[in-house]
Structure prediction request, 327 residues.
Amino acid sequence: MIEISGLRKTYRSKAGDVVAVDGVDLTVGEGEVFGVLGRSGAGKSTLLRCVNMLERPDAGTVSVDGVELTGLRRKRLRLARHTIGMIHQHFALLSSRTVAGNVAFALEVTGVPRAERRTRVAELLDLVGLTERAEAYPAQLSGGQKQRVGIARALAARPKVLLSDEATSALDPETTESILRLLLDLNRRLGLTILLITHEMTVVKRICTSAAVMRDGRFVESGRVADLLRQPGSELARDLFPFEAPESVPGATVVDVTVSGEDADTPIIAELARRFDTDVRILGGTVETLAATRAGRWRLALPGGPEENRDALEYLRTLGARVGVAS
Prediction:
């Protein structure tokens, strides 16, 4: 659905060139929720703006739904953008228009007739749960309600792709959760492909099936969340499951064990203790649901050195766990 190859964007200033996006490759499948995670200045927003060509990249290609946007001129590009909706961090609503008027605006600019606009606006407000607020103005809305208006407006032209630019970063945790539930529901009901950028691990944990970690304009890792959890040294796996636990224990082998999917509910630690008649110490850990994937991570201490525990470590791997020896 979204194919990006060799994307590069540089901003020029008197102080020198700043490379915002540096040779990024990205594939987002149809119906996928893909999150790009990174700190401020990592290049996330520039990447997103290049996807809908609000920023023209200096090099590389961007294709959405089989159409290469980087090769299109103005008129054809405007038409192609109808397949892409976008929601913003600070809502970008028109203060002089009602809720219904803000949603209708996206249809007005594409020349949709008045009667058809009215019907479509009603459908969209029902979809995002704002039917009763149709005549309210943005100043009368909560942050969560404003973002729901933004989502309804982004969906007005029936896009196949929804881009989300830090859509929950201005919201409190409870409201963030309600917006994420809405996005996940829209993804499932409408088959929407969603590409979102965020600096919040909660967002990736809650709804993303795939993710990338971005730093200094590049992806340092990328893939399906379930696969990254099993990848040795994965930053995403570490950040998804942070816990305070010692990295070394005298006289013991400390191991990090990560599981996902059905393996997350397997009594791995109990099986290990029984099979090898060993005292397993749990130094820290957690089990959570990531999007639709159950996943868990533990730090364990096994008596003796790595060589003495070689069979036990191999057994953990046969149970579907990713195993990393911490000490």
The domain at 2-228 is CATH 3.40.50.300 (Rossmann fold). The first strand starts at residue 2 and ends at 11. The longest helix spans residues 173-190.
